[in-house]
Design goal:
- With 207 residues, the chain is α/β, with parallel strands linked by helices.
- It folds into two domains: 2-76, Methyltransferase, Methionine Synthase (B12-binding Domains), Chain A, domain 1; 86-206, Rossmann fold.
- Helices cover 56% and strands 12% of the residues.
- The protein has nine helices and five strands.
- It has a five-stranded parallel beta sheet with strand order 2-1-3-4-5, with helices on both faces.
- α7 (150-162) links the parallel β3 and β4 (170-174).
- α1 packs parallel to α3 (31-50) and α6 (125-135) packs across α7.
- The longest helix has 20 residues, at 31-50.
- The chain is globular, with a radius of gyration of 17 Å.
- It binds cobalamin (B12).
- Cobalamin (B12) binds at residues 39, 42-43, 45-47, 49-50, 56, 59-60, 62-63, 90, 95-102, 104-105, 141-143, 145-147, 172-177, 192, 194-195, 198.
Length: 207
């Protein structure tokens, strides 16, 4: 059923995809597994865009279907802690407007008991610094789906250092082209490949 769900998303078949999401829930399939199937579909859509089989309008529509699926899935994500485990400031790097993955990280962090301040998309380094000054978070998270997101991420981390906040916050990074090597090069503390890993990392940082 999950493979079929990925395929329906790739086909941009909104009705069938959303019906399958509901069906998967009523068959007690874990929401995170359903989300994983949707992400697989998004990866294929990305490849089709890169191969010029799909247009940008197809990616826009796929994103809309993903949002609608998340509206169905979010109430089924369980809150696992009532105490506040830590504070996280998060945003998508400057120049980048992708937010589906970041929003998932935000949702799962909140479910796990983190207080999350989401700065949205296309966030300039100065805005991150301003919020860090104001909130004094335990963790700062950067999301970047474009290869060009590297520069603004590295620049923000450098600015954190310059402003004297680097020692008091842990920096985690993620998103499509981001990997361990990227994290190291940008002087982040860690990289997580998905929202589940991001939560594990955040717990480790605040534990
Ligand atoms: C949907 C989509 C769009 C939508 C975004 C809608 C939205 N609201 O987000 C729209 C249509 C707007 C879009 C626009 C563009 N896109 Co686009 N897009 C995608 C697509 C198909 C899916 C992304 C997605 O949502 N994936 C699903 C989520 C769940 O996965 P995720 O984002 O990876 O997130 C998970 C992890 O990475 C991690 N994570 C994410 N953030 C964080 C943060 C932290 C702190 C941590 C720890 C973890 C973490 O956890 C998440 C959940 O598990 C990707 C293809 C792909 N393979 O990613 C292309 C892709 C990212 N886009 C691409 C491109 C080129 C563009 C455009 C430049 C196209 C254009 N010509 O205009 C524009 C850029 C606009 C801009 N300035 O940002 C390229 C990027 C290539 C590159 N190397 O730079 C891709 C890879 C497609 C491709 N193969 O060519 N896009």
């Amino acid at each position: 059923m999950l493979e079929e769900l990925s395929q329906k998303l790739v086909n941009l078949d909104e009705d069938q995809a959303l019906t399958l999401v509901k069906k998967a829930i009523s068959n007690s399939i874990a929401p995170l597994e359903i989300i994983d199937a949707l992400r697989t579909g998004m990866d294929i859509i990305g490849q089709k865009f890169a191969n010029k089989e799909y247009y940008i309008s197809d990616m826009v529509y796929a994103a809309e279907i993903f949002h609608l699926a998340m509206d169905i899935l979010t109430p089924h994500l369980q809150k696992t802690s009532t105490e506040i485990l830590g504070k996280v400031v998060i945003g998508t790097a400057k120049g980048d407007i992708h937010d589906i993955g970041k929003n998932l990280v935000v949702s799962l962090l909140k479910c796990a008991g983190f207080q999350v301040i989401d700065l949205g998309v296309d966030v300039p380094p100065e805005k991150f610094i301003e919020k860090v000054k104001e909130i004094k978070p335990d963790i700062v998270g950067f999301s970047g789906l474009l290869t060009t997101s590297f520069e603004p991420m590295a620049e923000t981390i450098e600015l954190l250092e310059k402003e004297g906040f680097r020692a008091s916050v842990r920096v985690m990074v993620g998103g499509g082209p981001v990997n361990e090597e990227w994290a190291k090069k940008a002087k982040a503390d860690a990289y997580a490949k998905d929202a589940v890993e991001a939560v594990e990392l955040a717990k480790k940082f605040c534990g």
